[in-house]
């Protein structure tokens, strides 16, 4: 795993999974957690793929290249914020 962001997502995924075992999530809560963690991973992979593709096409400053990279990074950020909200909704009632 060379991408630093991927390592952060992997660490966060392991941490919330461990927390899930500790607090004893229900089946449906596990499904929601796995979908959320998997979604962040999948989006990060697509973001990296878009970054690499843009870099392959050009290393000059191009507005369309900027837009493609910023939108892909924005998708990861947006879903990560949703993931945090889902995490709070899942875990807060357990304490
Ligand atoms: N060819 C380009 N033309 C215009 N803007 C670019 C270009 N390449 C990068 N940028 C801008 O610079 C920012 C940083 O680009 P970079 O390729 O380092 O991506 P990054 O999001 O920092 O990647 P990483 O996830 O690897 O840290 C992009 O989000 C984009 O706004």
From TrEMBL:
Keywords of the record, alphabetical order, are:
ATP-binding, Cell membrane, Kinase, Lipid biosynthesis, Lipid metabolism, Membrane, Nucleotide-binding, Phospholipid biosynthesis, Phospholipid metabolism, Transferase, Transmembrane, Transmembrane helix
Which PROSITE patterns has this protein been placed in? Answer: DAGK_PROKAR (PS01069)
Membrane topology note? Multi-pass membrane protein
Q: What is the lineage of its organism?
A: Bacteria, Bacillati, Bacillota, Bacilli, Bacillales
Q: Which region is the signal sequence?
A: none
Cell compartment(s), UniProt: Cell membrane
* Chief subcellular location: membrane
Q: Any transmembrane segments, and where?
A: 71-92
What protein is this chain from? Undecaprenol kinase
